[in-house]
Write a structure and sequence with these properties.
Elements (H helix, E strand, L loop, with lengths): L3 E3 L4 E2 L5 E7 L5 E2 L14 E5 L3 E10 L10 E8 L2 E7 L14 E3 L3 E5 L5 E4 L4 H8 L8 H11 L8 H22 L2
Parallel strand pairs: 1-11
Antiparallel strand pairs: 2-3, 3-4, 3-5, 6-7, 6-9, 7-8, 10-11
């Protein structure tokens, strides 16, 4: 098996795959991104805490239309992992209302997204994070997530990355482009 590396900083692969949040040492609020100050209480001290690998589906949508090259349908969900909200795709089940139900129990899984020439596999935990985060932060409407994805794809080169470094650079550029789209179309 090739060596795996996480695609995002908050995914740890050892000893078993799990998510790691930055928890405010003052109020206990949790964040996946790096923070200078807590958005809840403005404290500045954080501790890394592992999250449960199991959760409960609190909200979801079955995505039927997506950017070119993205397989549809798929299920984008909001999962409660022992009090911490996690956004991700629901996989390994049929993407329809008969098989996906609110309250269903889920377990973290990782999905390989590609290999570089040395055989290193990158691991992806969630898709369209910028658009979904903007929606959850009430910066855009739900129906604008798709527009963020389409406009970002239209701005980014479609040449496949040849190395892991290329993939990470493409991710950085894509996040920046998506953030600009959110600022432009935001409500």
């Amino acid at each position: 098996m090739s060596k795996q590396i996480p695609f995002v900083d908050y995914l740890a692969l050892e000893p078993e795959p799990h998510l790691v949040a930055n928890e405010c040492t003052s109020c206990g609020a949790r964040f996946f991104d790096r923070r200078n100050a807590c958005a809840s209480c403005f404290a500045t001290e954080f501790a890394k805490v592992p999250l449960s690998t199991e959760g409960e589906l609190r909200s979801f949508t079955i995505v039927a239309f997506a950017a070119p090259g993205v397989d549809v349908p798929f299920v984008a969900g909001i999962i409660d992992c022992d009090g911490t909200t996690v956004r991700g795709n629901v996989v390994n089940t049929e993407p329809d209302a008969e098989h996906v139900q609110l309250g269903m129990k889920l377990k973290l899984t990782t999905v390989p997204i590609g290999e570089d020439t040395a055989g290193t596999t990158a691991v992806l935990n969630a898709a369209n994070e910028i658009g979904v985060e903007a929606f959850l932060n009430r910066q855009i409407r739900f129906d604008q997530i798709h527009a963020v994805n389409l406009e970002t794809l239209g701005q980014i080169s479609t040449a496949p990355p040849q190395t892991l470094e290329d993939l990470l650079e493409l991710d950085k550029i894509s996040r920046g482009a998506a953030s600009q789209v959110v600022r432009r179309i935001g409500i």
